[in-house]
Specification:
Largest sheet: 5 strands, parallel
Structural class: alpha/beta
CATH architecture: 3-Layer(aba) Sandwich
Shape: globular
Number of domains: 1
Bound molecules: D-ribose
């Protein structure tokens, strides 16, 4: 079964640096038939990227969305914020291969883009790959991904 289930809810959030790309990707998601949970921001006004990374991680932890899309200027700030949550595996991607591997090997549940570092066409392509690529479940990849949720204590 394809992971592209149109009934799926996808959460999306950005700061001001990712706002314009967020508008474009949100439209793409809706065109693909997904339900979109837009957690802001809502303009080009300067805001703090951790607020949006945390909002998206919180929504996913509460089961409000199965996958997430985060965008800031570089994609770095929002990915750091989201990855502070054990349930989140956020991948900052720049190309198709990296995006595909983030799903196949890492079971990434959030994809991050830099609104100032990636063109809209590449981002659009990566988003589709992120949504349609399955995790290679079982074996070494599952073992490694399980370890991500359970880091060693006191190290
Ligand atoms: C905002 O200017 C910028 O710092 C932010 O969008 C992001 O790139 C942070 O990582």
């Amino acid at each position: 079964m394809s992971s592209k289930e149109p009934s799926k809810t996808i959460a999306i959030a950005s700061d001001h640096g990712g706002y314009e790309l967020k508008v474009e990707l949100k439209k793409d998601l809706m065109d693909m038939g997904y339900t979109v949970l837009d957690l802001g921001s809502d303009s080009l006004e300067s805001v703090d990227y951790p607020d949006f990374g945390y909002a998206l991680a919180g929504a996913m932890k509460e089961g409000k969305a199965e996958r997430g899309v985060l965008i800031c200027g570089s994609g770095i700030g929002v990915s750091i914020a989201a990855n502070r949550h054990a349930e989140i595996r956020a991948a900052l991607v720049h190309d198709a291969l990296g995006t595909r591997l983030s799903r196949q090997h890492n079971d990434a549940n959030v994809v991050c883009f830099g609104g100032r570092t990636i063109g809209p066409e590449v981002a659009r392509d990566c988003l589709k790959i992120f949504l349609e690529t399955e995790f290679e479940k079982g074996g070494r990849h599952s073992r490694r991904v399980d370890k991500l949720s359970d880091p060693p204590k006191g190290k």
